[in-house]
Amino acid sequence: MNDLDRLRRLAIVSGGLGMVIGALAVVQFIVAFNGDPEAAFFGTPSAILGGDPDSAAWLRRAAFGYMWFPYLLLAPLTLFLHRRLRANGAWLADIGVVAGLAFIFVGACGAAILAVAGPSLIEAYAAAASAEQRADIATAFGLLRNVVFLALWQVLESITLGTWILTTGLLLLQERRFSSSVLVVLGVAVLASGGLTMLGVRSLLVIVVWFAVAATIGIAWGLWRRAR
Predict the structure, then answer these.
(1) Helix (H) or strand (E) run with residue 177 in it
(2) Residue 185: which region, alpha, beta or left (left: phi > 0; alpha: psi -120 to 50)?
């Protein structure tokens, strides 16, 4: 077994483990935000402050789990794809690995910050003695949300993750007609999705529809290319 095979196996194991951790983290995020998926996606302060007293613990567990996947446990996959595809285009593969590692670093930092700062603000809000104190804490939590959920996870991540997916798709264009087509379209869609946040779009339905349309286009293109 060569080094590339070992890296591939590590990527499979870490990715499989990460999917379990990530799924649990998503459920915990939704529970923390009062069972509202849209509030959990955008980090809406009103859905978590002053609600369930266990929200702080749920948020802490969710954010620490999220730090591992889809972030830190994707590092082996990033390195494997770089090693595996660099022969197809060295400069494109190098851009991809930088983007992939940047995605992991940005996302994991955001999750760690949220896991440490978020629960303490929720607990402070619950213990506040006056409306003025609660307003100040809500403002601080809103700033934390803007930095982590919007700036890091929905703007910078869109750029880094979109670039990683797009470059991977381009490197596979001559090898795997179907999957590469889907990856290219999804990469462009992820890159463009950052613009939704910049335009102030706060609708989970819009985002779901956006990616559903992109996936449909990518699948149709991939089937057409495979049939040629």
Answers:
(1) helix 177-198
(2) alpha
Query: Within 10 A of 66 (CB to CB), how many other CB atoms are there?
Result: 26
The whole-number pLDDT of residue 92 equals 97
- 83 Cβ contact partners less than 8 Å away, ≥ 6 residues apart: 3, 4, 7
**What whole-number distance in Å separates Cα of residue 94 and Cα of residue 167?**
9
Q: Which residue has the tokens 């990530």?
A: 22
* All residues at 6 or more sequence positions from 176 whose CB lies less than 8 Å from its CB, including other chains: none
Domain that residue 182 falls in: 3-227
Residue showing tokens 């999957």: 179
Asked whether the beta carbons of 190 and 165 are under 8 A apart, the reply is yes
122 CB-side CA count, 13 A: 27
pLDDT interval class at 52 (50, 70, 90): confident
Distance CA 197, CA 199 (A): 5
Backbone angles phi, psi at 48, to 5 degrees: -125, -25
Number of domains comprising the chain: 1
pLDDT digits over 60-95, tens only? 999 999 999 999 999 999 999 999 999 999 999 999
